[in-house]
Amino acid sequence: MRKWNWKKFGMAAGLALTLAAAGCGADDSADKNADGETDYSKAVDYQVTGIEPGAGVVKASEKAIEEYDNMKGWEVETSSSGAMATALGEAIKKKDPIVITGWSPHWMFAKYDLKYLDDPKGVFGKAETINTMTRKGLKDDMPNAYKVLDNFKWSKDDIEEVMLDIQDGKDPEEAAQKWIDKNKDTVDKWTKGVEKSNGEKVKLVYVEWDTEIASTNVIGKVLEDLGFKVNITPLDNAVMWKAVADGEADGMVAAWLPATHGDLYEQYKDDVDNLGENLEGAKIGLVVPKYMDIDSIEDLKQK
Predict the structure, then answer these.
(1) pTM metric for this prediction
(2) Each residue of 65-90: b (16+ CB within 10 Å) or e?
(3) For 83, which of 79, 119, 120, 139 could close a Cys bridge (C-beta 3.0–4.6 Å)?
(4) Are residues 142 and 260 in the same domain?
(5) 149-190, pLDDT tens digit by residue?
(6) What mean pLDDT is predicted for residues 52-77?
(7) Helix axis angle, 172-182 relative to 156-167, nearest 10°?
(8) Domain holding 18: CATH number?
(9) Element (H or E) spanning 174, and its range?
């Protein structure tokens, strides 16, 4: 499976700033209130450690700051999903407080004890789905590739298994192949009635989140095993949607709806084919380690 970049983005530029946002320790007396309890808001310098600018969970977090009076003066420090995960790991290693823009499925929920902060105002919406989108005309041009993409459905346990293998150092293609080898019955459902290809080229795009790295490598490997020549390309959220809508890419399995990619779906829904959910029960919100003694966004304090 060939991987190539159409464009490069400076998604890791905020790493140092993101790490700094997690650097205030819970044991710092300056971060204690009059009762001797940790003032978590002050400890994190009134910052949410975020991912890429423009991501749905970042926009929702920025909206939460506007909607919740107790978060006045807060900021979302954007960087990349990798930088956010690094900051989270460093904070947990020191048992420092940190508030992140979180989503699941994600390997971090399997690796760390985390919790979503309750969202009484419903800013982050209800459970989401991850959907498959293809360019217009793919069904006619490559009906067998279209059928595989249309049949592609799996669970949170499935995707997190692949994600954990990648996080533990396995190459994404190797992790994908390992899962495919272990789940032949599931893959057979995706490929039922599909004829092998004689080398047709399929271009898949994805946003470089851990979930989408896992899912795109798995579906790409399945297509490759059927004889397709598959290119997978990581892109920025907006560019990913535009590539499918413009026909520069054949499809993606990375559309989070209704909230995360809702604005992009509204912009491009007439120019793509929505094949429906490939995964249910996804979620976004503000996430903290369980050792932080807060349970709701309303427990945070304004600057």
Answers:
(1) 0.73
(2) beebeebeebbbbbbbbbbbbbbbee
(3) 79
(4) yes
(5) 999 999 988 998 999 999 999 999 999 999 999 999 999 999
(6) 94
(7) 140
(8) 3.40.190.100
(9) helix 172-182
Kindly state the tokens that stand for 33. Answer: 């209130």
Domain residue limits at 263: 128-283
Pair (134, 272) in one structural domain: yes
Q: Cα dist. 290→86, 95, 116, 119, 179 in Å?
A: 18, 10, 9, 16, 30
- How many C-beta atoms surround the C-beta of residue 234 within 10 A? 23
User: Residue by residue, what is the 3-state secondary structure of 135-185?
Assistant: ECCHHHHCHHHHHHHHHCCCCHHHHHHHHHHHHCCCCHHHHHHHHHHHCHH
Separation of alpha carbons 123 and 67, rounded Å: 8
Q: How far apart are CA 205 and CA 148, in angstroms?
A: 16
How many domains are contained in the chain? 2
pLDDT digits (tens, 9 = 90+) for 6-37: 443 344 444 444 444 444 444 454 576 555 57
242/172 same-domain check:
yes
Please give the mean pLDDT across all residues of the chain: 90
Find the length of the chain: 303
142 and 279 in a common domain = yes
